[in-house]
């Protein structure tokens, strides 16, 4: 039987180890945040890339993906530096680029999308469906909330153009990129200008027997990973010419479409909201799936060669069959087996009589390995801020080492070559995850 002092000593050792892990976690997180803030401040006037998503995100998984773009610290939302742009033509310039996988564009839209139904507000405004098309928003820079409003377009001199139109939906957006109405299968790009609050261009999907005119987006992009890149260039008036916005749209590494819009961009300091519409809709026959990956913002307009270089880096790799939690559990289980093997061999040298093995020692080592393995996995995933598929190699290599060190500190046990068995178990677990 263990005495009270021995129990207290054991609890103190385990508690000290947990405190050490937590302290290391927060120190590393603070250092990473400070480095990011320092880099952001130092490179404000330089060409800079900001990674919004690093890894694969499934739209069907409920998760808030809103980013604060104003306060590097002191906000409940994670910070994304997408505020500044490098002005080469006198106006704002920036680029958004991401990978997208859609299995069925026809059914990606929610069946209960409110913009598809004519409604009348308390103010008596009646909404026409043709002015309120169904959209599935991929991301919006501005405000993800929907409003009911009356729209009046203005020309460059501020005079009204046409009659007011009653609208409902998002209207603070520079830009908003969405899958258009399922009947046309186009990509819609909305943005605010000084003269038009809902300026829109469409990546056209016009199939043709003439291969030089074939521009069917749905055929190009359904059921496969596709990289979309949008560059915005704001030109100021020069030599009597009016101001103009040029938007270059790329599919993979190919320039797909160029649009010119009069006016100037009306940028905002709002939040960047990724997949704000939540899980995509589905009918009874087809389960729609939408994945987004490697979403980056550039504070300048990428050139054709830069887009091609980004595409050549390769499409995302999806880890099938296992999620982050599964990897963490496998890591801990395999290392527990290694730790138990170590305890048996190290304590008894030879397996002559298993009944004499100190069960308390086995339980203590297994518990410490479980806690340390779990926390070290969380530490790596949090610091790297990436999907587990991109860090599984780092996890398989570093988790056993970190766990051995922490377990040795907590238990004051010597580490021998026998503990390599734990690493072998961990390697097997990582291999199974990758091959699944």
From TrEMBL:
The keyword Transmembrane helix applies. Residues 320-433 form the EamA domain. InterPro entries: EamA_dom, EmrE-like. The chain crosses the membrane at residues 7-27, 322-345, 357-383, 389-410, 417-434. Keywords: Membrane, Transmembrane, Transmembrane helix. The keyword DNA-binding does not apply. Coiled coil: none annotated. It holds the Pfam family EamA. GO terms for cellular component: membrane. Belongs to the drug/metabolite transporter (DMT) superfamily. Plant drug/metabolite exporter (P-DME) (TC 2.A.7.4) family. This is EamA domain-containing protein. The lineage of its organism: Eukaryota, Viridiplantae, Chlorophyta, core chlorophytes, Chlorophyceae.
């Amino acid at each position: 039987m263990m005495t009270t002092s021995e129990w207290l000593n054991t609890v103190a050792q385990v508690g000290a180890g947990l405190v050490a892990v937590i302290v290391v976690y927060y120190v590393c997180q603070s250092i990473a945040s400070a480095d990011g803030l320092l880099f952001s401040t130092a490179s404000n006037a330089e060409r800079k890339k900001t990674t919004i998503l690093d890894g694969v995100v499934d739209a069907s998984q409920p998760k808030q993906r809103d980013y604060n773009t104003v306060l590097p610290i002191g906000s409940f939302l994670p910070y994304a530096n997408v505020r500044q742009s490098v002005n080469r033509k006198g106006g704002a310039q920036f680029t958004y680029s991401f990978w997208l996988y859609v299995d069925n564009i026809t059914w990606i839209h929610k069946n209960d999308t409110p913009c598809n139904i004519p409604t009348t507000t308390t103010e008596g405004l009646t909404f026409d469906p043709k002015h309120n098309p169904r959209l599935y928003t991929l991301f919006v820079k501005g405000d993800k909330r929907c409003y009911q409003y009356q729209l009046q377009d203005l020309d460059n001199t501020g005079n009204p153009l046409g009659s007011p139109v009653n609208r409902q939906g998002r209207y603070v957006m520079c830009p908003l990129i969405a899958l258009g109405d399922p009947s046309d299968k186009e990509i819609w790009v909305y943005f605010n200008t000084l003269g038009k609050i809902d300026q829109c261009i469409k990546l056209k999907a016009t199939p043709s027997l003439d291969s030089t005119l074939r521009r069917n987006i749905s055929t190009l992009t359904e059921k496969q990973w596709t990289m979309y890149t949008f560059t915005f260039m704001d030109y100021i008036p020069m030599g009597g010419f009016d101001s103009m916005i040029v938007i270059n749209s790329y599919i993979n590494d190919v320039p797909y479409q160029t649009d010119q819009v009069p006016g100037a961009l009306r940028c905002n300091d709002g939040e960047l909201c990724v997949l704000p519409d939540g899980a995509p809709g589905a009918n009874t026959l087809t389960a729609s799936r939408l994945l987004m990956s490697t979403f980056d913002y550039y504070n300048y307009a990428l050139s054709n060669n830069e887009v091609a270089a980004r595409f050549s880096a390769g499409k995302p790799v999806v880890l099938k069959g296992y999620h982050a939690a599964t990897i963490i559990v496998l890591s801990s289980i395999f290392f527990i087996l290694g730790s138990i093997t170590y305890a048996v061999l190290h304590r008894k040298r030879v397996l002559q009589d298993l009944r004499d093995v100190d069960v308390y020692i086995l339980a203590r080592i297994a518990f410490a390995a479980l806690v340390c393995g779990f926390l070290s996995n969380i530490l790596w995933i949090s610091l790297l801020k990436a999907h587990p598929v991109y860090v599984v190699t780092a996890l398989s290599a570093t988790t056993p080492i970190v766990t051995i060190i922490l377990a040795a500190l907590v238990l004051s046990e010597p580490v021998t070559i026998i503990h390599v068995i734990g690493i072998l178990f961990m390697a097997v677990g990582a291999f199974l995850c990758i091959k699944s």
